[in-house]
């Protein structure tokens, strides 16, 4: 499993969105095909992982590096460097740290083991350098220097993973190869650091009160979703713990909000026993109704990588909101609210899959917002929307198979119906802003009819929205 996990994490580092379920599928393909015929394996993994033609070049370069690259380069035995590699080395030679150029040379010549050993000598495991900085900070500084040099050398305004698919398609194979090797370098250093610790402590993020753990928690929550490489098994317990903390905070906020203005008459009357000294204050009680929340979770191929995490957040949100309903959709819609009542998250996720055994229409591969929203209104016909209902939609608004009427997608008519009958409609889009309204994205049409669309780039964004920390009034 580690072979495919490392390969998938490398692709995610370079910007390819790959879900945990697609990683499992890739592992099954690898187990079935084996590593004997590399071209058959290449085709199998490509079918299991890729969604866009624009990602083919990154996949092919990384596959060659990971599975057949070293073998083919030994046969070629070509000592000459490419112009891109020479440019990168010249940039590193101008670094203030003399060891950077040596590590860069080992990277561009694919001598990763030697590069790791050199870097580990620079940053001893469990300690720091002569400058007194901790090893973790030194590794981070080294990674920043190499990454900045790569970006400056090839005029990249943002890291490779931050580029649009069309921009990544224009990258040369050498730039991708160097970026891939950079990731492998720091991934291997981190692995060795974990292995060499005395108690072999796991580096997973935990929710504690120590400064180190709080720092790790902050890194975990604020990491770009496209680069989060943890699987659902490793991440769900952390999300549950964080959700409990936020649920407790939200319950306390709502409890305090029930205290209205000071009731002077009742306060004076109650303090007569104290000779008029205001020792006990009485507030007017303010009634706060539980909000009704409906969550629509896009589980189609383009957002499947985040849908599982969002379901775990919904599972914790029920500790705060008694009136919460959760639906999932791709080209049809099913309600999975019943799964939230299970005592454990594992049982809830199992029952969630059971709900998909009875869809209203036959499931297809691609998303269809029109049919899904039509099914949604059919499912809620016995309890229609009202002005106390807030609707949260997690999806990239890519209406691949939806039909159009004149100059707008028909799915936008259903969004308008939601806006007119509900309190608010919020769309949480995990895609980068520069991908909105490109291709089959229909974000602007949903905005035109009154839906609020926000980018959710991190897990912290998702948690904030679900627990109503950032929902506009």
- Low-pLDDT regions: 70-78, 125-134, 196-216
- Helix percent band: 40-55%
The backbone outline, from C-alpha atoms, is globular
What's the domain count?
4
- Average per-residue pLDDT, rounded, comes to 76
Look at the helices and sheets and give the structural class.
Answer: alpha/beta
Q: Characterize the quaternary organization of these chains.
A: single chain
Strand content: 5-15%
Listing every helix as H and every strand as E from the N terminus to the C terminus, the arrangement reads HHHHHHHHHHHHEHEEHEEHHEEEHEHEH
Q: Can you tell me the CATH superfamily of the largest domain?
A: von Willebrand factor, type A domain
**How large, in whole angstroms, is the Cα Rg?**
26 Å
SSE blueprint:
Elements: H1 2-13, H2 20-33, H3 38-49, H4 56-76, H5 83-93, H6 98-108, H7 112-122, H8 135-153, H9 165-169, H10 173-196, H11 211-222, H12 232-257, E1 259-262, H13 264-270, E2 283-285, E3 292-298, H14 304-317, E4 323-329, E5 333-335, H15 345-355, H16 369-379, E6 389-394, E7 404-405, E8 408-409, H17 411-421, E9 424-429, H18 443-448, E10 452-455, H19 459-466
Parallel strand pairs: 3-4, 3-6, 6-9, 9-10
Antiparallel strand pairs: 1-2, 4-5, 7-8
Helix pairs in contact: 2-3, 4-10, 5-6, 5-8, 6-7, 7-10, 8-10, 12-14, 14-19, 16-17
Written account of the structure:
With 473 residues, the protein is α/β, with parallel strands linked by helices. The protein has 4 domains: 2-76; 83-203, no CATH class; 233-285; 292-466, Rossmann fold, CATH 3.40.50. Helix content is 52%, strand content 9%. The chain is built from 19 helices and 10 strands. It has helices spanning 2-13, 20-33, 38-49, 56-76, 83-93, 98-108, 112-122, 135-153, 165-169, 173-196, 211-222, 232-257, 264-270, 304-317, 345-355, 369-379, 411-421, 443-448, 459-466, and strands at 259-262, 283-285, 292-298, 323-329, 333-335, 389-394, 404-405, 408-409, 424-429, 452-455. The strands form 3 sheets. It has a 6-stranded mixed β-sheet, with helices on both faces. A two-stranded antiparallel sheet has the order 1-2. Strand 4 and strand 5 form a beta hairpin. Helix 5 crosses helix 8. It is globular. The protein starts with a helix and ends in a 7-residue tail after the last helix. Mean pLDDT is 76; it is low at 70-78, 125-134 and 196-216.
């Amino acid at each position: 499993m580690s072979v495919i996990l490392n390969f998938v994490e490398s692709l995610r580092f370079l910007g390819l969105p790959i879900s945990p379920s697609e990683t499992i599928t890739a592992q099954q393909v690898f187990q079935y095909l084996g590593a004997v015929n590399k071209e058959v394996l290449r085709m199998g993994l490509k079918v299991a992982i890729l969604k866009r033609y624009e990602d083919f070049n990154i996949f092919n370069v990384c596959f060659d590096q990971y599975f057949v690259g070293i073998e083919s380069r030994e046969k070629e035995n070509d000592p000459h460097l490419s112009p891109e590699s020479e440019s990168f080395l010249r940039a590193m030679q101008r670094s203030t740290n003399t060891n950077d150029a040596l590590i860069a040379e080992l990277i561009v010549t694919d001598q990763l083991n030697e590069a790791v050993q050199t870097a580990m000598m620079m940053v001893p495991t469990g300690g720091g350098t002569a400058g007194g900085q901790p090893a973790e900070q030194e590794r981070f500084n080294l990674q920043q220097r190499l990454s900045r040099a790569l970006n400056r050398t090839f005029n990249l305004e943002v890291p490779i993973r931050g580029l649009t698919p069309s921009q990544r398609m224009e990258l040369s194979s050498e730039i991708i190869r160097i970026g891939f090797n950079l990731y492998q370098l720091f991934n291997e250093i981190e692995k060795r650091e974990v292995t060499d610790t005395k108690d072999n402590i796991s580096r997973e993020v935990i929710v504690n009160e120590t400064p180190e753990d709080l720092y790790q928690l902050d890194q975990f929550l604020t990491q770009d979703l496209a680069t989060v490489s943890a699987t659902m098994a490793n991440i769900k317990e952390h999300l549950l713990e964080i959700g409990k903390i936020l649920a407790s905070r939200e319950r306390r906020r709502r409890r305090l909000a029930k205290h209205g203005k000071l009731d002077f008459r009742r306060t004076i009357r109650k303090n007569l026993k104290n000779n008029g000294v205001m020792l006990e204050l009485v507030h007017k009680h303010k009634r706060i109704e539980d909000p009704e929340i409906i969550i629509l979770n896009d589980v189609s191929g383009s957002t499947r990588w985040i849908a599982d995490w969002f379901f775990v957040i919904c599972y914790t949100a029920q500790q705060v909101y008694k009136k919460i309903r959760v639906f999932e959709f791709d080209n049809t819609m099913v309600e999975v609210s019943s799964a939230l009542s299970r005592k454990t998250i594992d049982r809830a996720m199992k029952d969630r899959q059971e709900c998909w055994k009875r869809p209203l229409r036959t499931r297809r591969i691609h998303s269809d917002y029109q049919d899904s929203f039509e099914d949604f209104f059919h499912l809620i016909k016995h309890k229609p929307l009202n002005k106390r209902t807030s609707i949260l939609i997690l999806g990239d608004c890519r209406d691949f198979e939806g039909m159009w009427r004149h100059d707008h997608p028909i799915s936008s008519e259903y969004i308008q119906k939601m806006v007119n009958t509900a309190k608010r409609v919020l769309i949480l889009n995990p895609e980068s802003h520069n991908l909105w309204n490109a291709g089959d994205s229909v974000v602007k049409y949903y905005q035109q009819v009154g839906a609020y669309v926000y980018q959710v780039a991190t897990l912290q964004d998702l948690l904030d929205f679900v627990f109503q920390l950032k929902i506009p009034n």
